[in-house]
Amino acid sequence: MAAKSQPNIPKAKSLDGVTNDRTASQGQWGRAWEVDWFSLASVIFLLLFAPFIVYYFIMACDQYSCALTGPVVDIVTGHARLSDIWAKTPPITRKAAQLYTLWVTFQVLLYTSLPDFCHKFLPGYVGGIQEGAVTPAGVVNKYQINGLQAWLLTHLLWFANAHLLSWFSPTIIFDNWIPLLWCANILGYAVSTFAMVKGYFFPTSARDCKFTGNFFYNYMMGIEFNPRIGKWFDFKLFFNGRPGIVAWTLINLSFAAKQRELHSHVTNAMVLVNVLQAIYVIDFFWNETWYLKTIDICHDHFGWYLGWGDCVWLPYLYTLQVRRVCTWCTTPCSCPPRTPWASCCWAWWATTSSGWPTTRRTCSAARMGAASSGAGSPRSSSAPTHPPMGRGTTASCWCRASGAWPATSTTSAT
Question: Is residue 409 part of a domain?
């Protein structure tokens, strides 16, 4: 398909002080300019079926005790019809809408109105005002890194309510789980549609917008690179790192509270899944500054893929384990046999991920040295200063006599 013509991109000064022509690199770096038929078919498939996949998993857990083949078997054998399954699905409620609105509003306030103070007393933690990676158009955005602070305050309030204030039941998320799903879908589609309209009519940085001429691909993968409202509200960082990920551990805690309410105890399996997933979430927020240089921020544009995915896919599919444990694994037991394996997997992931900042600094320093000495090939000089990097992936850094070829993620968007 023919891509929409792009405005001429002027030469921009990179962070290392070397002036490069961004026109060539912008055509190769980041989201696709043109869409082949396979990519288009994949996008349409995801737009059509991803919401149903989420619904199917949640419905199976709610009506069939997480037996994923249960609905299919019942329909094939005639024991149930689609209308019967849908009739048993709880609808959206006023309480769920109010709860979800309050939740998102609270996270917006924590994100925009409370500057980070954790970096002032936590050794090794990097927060506050930080710079992101240079965009294809040469823009360097600044971010208020306060995710760890938002997570801590949210969970402090949660535990204060559970043990002292009693404003709401700790099982409130479980009790409104499916009605909240409809609220999350509404927000996901609303923010994705707004981001697309904004990209066409009032983008934050028009030079970083990409148009393919295909509506479905633009909606799915996004047009704007870093859509913002005001100076600090960045859509990509907020939706990647606030409503879904902060809620992740709250969802786990709510399901643990429900298990205790139903069975008068919390199983070791429930404790394990809460602890391991909490470690992952805390690690994410501890390294939020580093996250600014990963593929999500410095490669992906903001569209339905991130808007709906962060609101619906992340909190509902990433918590399937705790949903199953809540109602299925209810017998107290000793340490689960997979505990050492799960711990080793997390340790391996953390170790490989921790090498990324060093890799980036080493490659960047080598390339800067080559540029200052006048050495360098056309290919290396046109490479993006901050190529996309994904968490937990592996890559290589080729250091050549003419300079370092920056490491790029093995995962790239089409």
Answer: no
Closest residue by Cα to residue 199 from 190, 208, 188 = 208
pLDDT value of position 352: 61
**Max Cα-Cα span within the chain:** 75
Give the tokens for residue 411: 């995962």
Q: Give a yes or no: residue 6 inside a domain.
A: no
DSSP structure class, residue 264: S
Vertex 97, ends 94 and 101: CA angle to 5°?
140
Q: What is the DSSP letter of 9?
A: P
Domains contained in the chain, number: 1
**Mean pLDDT, the chain cut into blocks of 10 residues (414 residues total):** 40 35 44 77 92 95 90 92 93 95 96 91 91 86 93 95 91 95 96 94 89 90 91 91 92 94 89 93 93 85 93 94 83 58 63 58 50 40 33 30 30 34
Distance between CA atoms of residues 182 and 103, nearest Å = 15
Residue 164, domain member (yes or no): yes
Give the domain range for residue 115.
91-329
Q: Residue 300 to residues 39, 243, 387, 412: CA-CA distances in angstroms?
A: 15, 19, 11, 9
Buried/exposed 172-204: b ≥16 CB within 10 Å, e otherwise: bbbbbbbbbbbbbbebbbebbeebbebbeeebb
* Residue that is written with structure tokens 């962060």 in the block: 310
Is 264 inside any structural domain?
A: yes
Q: How far apart are CA 167 and CA 146, in angstroms?
A: 26
Give 355's DSSP letter: H
